[in-house]
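Re: that chain you flagged

S.,

Sorry for the slow reply, it's been a week of failed gels. I finally had a moment to sit down with the sequence you sent. For the record, here it is as I used it:
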Amino acid sequence: MTRVSGPVTALAAALFVFGIGQELWFRYLPAYLRALGASAFAVGAFGSLKDLLDAAYAYPGGALSDRLGARRALLIFGALATAGFAVYFVWPSAAAVFAGLLLVMTWQSLALPATFALIGEELPGGRRVAGFTAQAIVKRVPVVLAPPLGGLLLERLGTVHGMRAGFAVSIVLSLGMLVVLRRSFRSADARRPRRAPDAGPGKARLPRSLRQLLIADCLVRLCEGLPAVFLVIWAIEMIEVSPSQFGLLTSILMAAAILSYLPGAAFAERTGKKPFILLTYLFFSLFPLAVVFSRSFGHLAGAYVLGGLREIGEPARKALIVDLADPRAVGKTVGLYYAIRGFAVAGAAAAGGLLWTIEPSWTFFAAAAVGLLGTAWAAVFLSADRAVPVRKAAL
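Prediction finished late last night. Pasting the structure tokens below so you have them in one place:
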């Protein structure tokens, strides 16, 4: 237990610290673009670029993780993201929001397969749902704490100056965390050498069950992506809540998500992963409907509780992906999965922007329809708990 706790603990600390810094401002970037004079279509294009980078970075991130090792890859990706925070701080313009995103997204996109690979390497199969539950909680606690503070910065300093203050905090926290992360990983490497290179390269393969999960996942993430960048604009411009109230809504959503993780993980280990994956997809589908029918902050608070329940089956879904991957190519398999999903949904935010220019509510209704289709697909075709892991066929 002691042998594997160091890298996992260091990863948890990095996810928390990077999350605190980034969540001060990341969800306010659409409002920041509006303050800098960007149109609704430009905001949608920003969301699509974010989704496109998610897709484009996923497989290279997995390949680099498998080649360099998850620990070294995480250090490199964290340093690149910190450089992106610096671009945002020194260049307050709409163009910088797009350009800096190329670097900022490296932590959550390039580093995602490395995170999966590290957890898969350090934890045995029976503990992976619990491991991904812990990872999800650590990632989302900053989303409870930081957005209300970021909203206060925007209210006190104005949108532009408040965002720059948030960028500065991110730079300081990230630099400190990179130093700690490097020392922790070096200490762990000194105690245990890396896997011998003669194990041979593994192949990224998607067995049938993983392909069915991917199809459903693509549809449900289209549901999420259509209105994602417009949630802050709907709340602030349509419902007329304050930035700090929107930050509180984000905290409510994440608090509900965190409270759902532990019971969801416990029951998924006992009863199977599929029911909880289906619950996740159903809540994804209902969330945009709950938002569009809200007429006050109180209504939105209830909608965001529902939105938090979208995460109840996420650890089970992530554990299933790792279970089915060739253990020598977890990074590449996760990267391939997320690359396909990312490219499939990359245009969602731009499509949501076009629907918004016609009628804002259409963005949310279209999202719900696509999400319900994805939920139905998983209910009919996914056989998660009867799947045979690809590792048996790939070795």
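What I noticed first: Confidence is low (pLDDT under 50) at residues 1-5, 193-199, 386-395.

Talk soon,
D.
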